[in-house]
Amino acid sequence: MTTNSLDFIDVYDRRSRFASGPLHMSLLEESLAEEVEFEGIVGKSPMLRKVLELVDIVAKGTATVLLLGETGTGKELIARAIHNRSHRKDRTFVKLNCAAIPSGLLESELFGHERGAFTGAITQKIGRIELADQGSLFLDEIGDIPLELQPKLLRVLQEREFERLGSTRTKQVDVRVVAATHRNLEEMILEKQFRSDLYYRLNVVPISIPPLRERLEDIPLLVQHFVQHAARRMNKTIDTISSDTLDALTEYQWPGNIRELENVIERAVILSPSRVLQVPLRDLQTRVPAGHDCERLHRLADVEREHILSILMETRWVLSGPRGAAARLAMNRSTLYFRMKKLGIVRP
Questions:
Q1: Residues 6+ apart with CB under 8 A from 291
Q2: Which of 105, 165, 174, 240 is placed for a possible disulfide with 117 were both Cys, Cβ 3.0 to 4.6 Å?
Q3: What integer is the mean pLDDT of 39-48?
Q4: What angle do the packed helices 257-271 and 219-234 form, to 10 degrees?
Q5: Is residue 221 within a helix (H) or strand (E), and if so which, with residue range?
Q6: Please, are residues 302 and 315 in contact by the beta-carbon 8 Å criterion?
Q7: Of 67-81, 132-146, 312-326, which gets the smallest average pLDDT?
Q8: What DSSP state is assigned to residue 209?
Q9: Cβ–Cβ < 8 Å for 124, 165
């Protein structure tokens, strides 16, 4: 393994147990077993640790939680962790993706309906809110809930009551709501697309989940985790990854976050003809986030480089500490180190 690769691995494993040559998955397996403390949540980066510490505290209460983060960052896993660590863990965990249900059907999915409430309602239906009574309700993509339904959801949060469609009988419900969105709800409020009173009811305990590009330390463990699962499903053995492949995986920006990494690793396991994981590096080099072009990406990289350089000069190239560049940039030291390497920033 090259010196750069050893430096990279050492960020994740201070014991420096890795010898030169390709990285064997078994060496990461011990770390993986040690680091998976929350169900299905893999990683040990400082940013993820802060999130999980907050989850552990919040889970013990009953407050509504709002998960904020880009698509593919694992918001559902965080929601499940909150439920599984709460006093409601033996009750039902119900989930609903508000963006996946047509607006005309979403009200029925949430609140349920009585027979004959509308054309096609041939039987009574219990809604997700009622199913989650005494348990937890995870509302993913809450920013996509139509304006006309928002007052009804607000009533559930405030009064703990609702009516099924076509019914005049008010039902009481004891449900903990965990909502999630990748959208900027404050901007939506200014654009009259989201109610401010509902936002404040949802935003009791906000938790921001970092994108994968800000927790590069976790990529080796995530790769190991996904390789294990994919290889087991396909009855294959993958036990080695080259240093070049690992470097490429950490240099890519992962606009699709953990979900995209999982898909790339699954494809690599399928296509690898031997026990060595072979990721099609050309795919990573040519993949461009949807809605972006190469010229715009280069401009963004230039802006980022200038911004990081200005902070480094202001802090006299001190990376660590409360007044260091990493703290000023709201990222951990290892992430800043990799961004500097990626952007070609070298200390004079």
A1: none
A2: 165
A3: 86
A4: 50
A5: helix 219-234
A6: no
A7: 312-326
A8: P
A9: no
